Amino acid sequence: MAQKKNEAVSAANDNIITTAEETNAGGLFVNTFWDFFEQSSARTRQVRESQEDAYIKALREVIKFNKQYRKSIANLYEQSKKTNNDIVTGLMNQFTSSKEVMNEVVSLDSAQTFESEELKNQLKEVTNQLENLALTPIKSVVHLIDQFEDNIEKNAESGIEYSRERRDAWQQVEDEYVKLARNTHYDMVERGKNSLKELVKAR
Description:
This protein has two helices and no strands. By secondary structure, it is mainly alpha-helical.
């Protein structure tokens, strides 16, 4: 009789161990499933944020390159303007020195020399005014392009910042939903196992 009691106790212990293993297996499945979901969600969030950071960085680099390109074109223009002025100055000096030689030969009076100097100064002034008039639309366009690019950068940054704030706010809701779904899933697995046990016992 003692042997039957030992067998009964042994069978009960085996049943308890089997039930504990089944509970652990069900809980392990539920935990693994929802842990995987949370990790996948976190990875997706990180990838999205890194893509947004890369987009902003690329946008800043393009804007920086465009500004440097426009600056180099302006420097090239200034350099060519300086070179042209040097050439014109050299030609004027040659013209003046040849005119002085002619003046000595023809002996023109000083009034004509003064008039030619005044004419040269007026010509330079008119040339500078025409150059400023020609450059005004170009400078305006460059200024508008700079403002447009700065606005694009600011809008992109504020848009990304807004979407991140919105996602962070919804993240709390998602975390609560995952927590409730995990608990519900775990309860469903437990109810299913308990129902199956009751069905097996009934047979």
